Amino acid sequence: MVKSAEQDERNFFRRYIFDYNSKMMRAFRRLIKGFLCLYIPLMVGCYLVNNYLVSSKNGTAAVLLSSYAFDYTLFARDVQSYKKLEKFNGKDHWSPPLAFLGSYPAWSLYFSWRKQRLDYFFSATVDDFETVLTDPKYQSIVFVGHGSFNSIQLADGQVDNDFVTQRLGKSEKKSGEWFQLSCPAFDYRDQHIGSLVMEQGRFFHYNPKISEDAGTLHFVVDALSGFQLLKHHTAAYYQTNRHAQRSSR
Prior knowledge:
This protein is of the alpha/beta class and 249 residues long. The protein is 51% helix and 13% strand.
């Protein structure tokens, strides 16, 4: 009788856990279906608006999605582990599609409002960046990936202030906006790489005085809000610099 009671109790808990898991799975599936029912028409609508209803009289916005999402060598403990981890850098080819799916609705509406069309570059390379830099068709640039105050890391190499100066030459600066969704850590110059490309005040980056690191949360906020976090960080950074300059006089 005791064993029978214990077995009944076990069966009861098994059925309870199974029923609970089944309910959770059903709720999760409904949530996914509801999300897709909203997301897919939204994506299609944003695509049609941006590509067929919006004129590109203000140029095109190039979105460079780098497959260099993380610097794995930061986790190295010695020279051997550094060499092993270095092989993984630039091979995050899963990140550009995810970044595209997460950003397209909000960013297409953002640039559509400014009469600019979107052009995505997946696993963007140095050649892609040079094309965007020198082609007057592209007036806005969005970069997502690993970078710093003076550089951005593309799939096959790094570009910095010197690269931009050499390639851009005496060409006119771009009239759109530069959005850099990467770490803002200082390198070797006070002049941000975006300031070499864009007209004055048209480049935005995270504030290195708040944090020299930027993560997934930063991207999610800017992907959903239309770069509002980037604009807030940039304004705070240069306002702090102006105060510092005034106090030093």
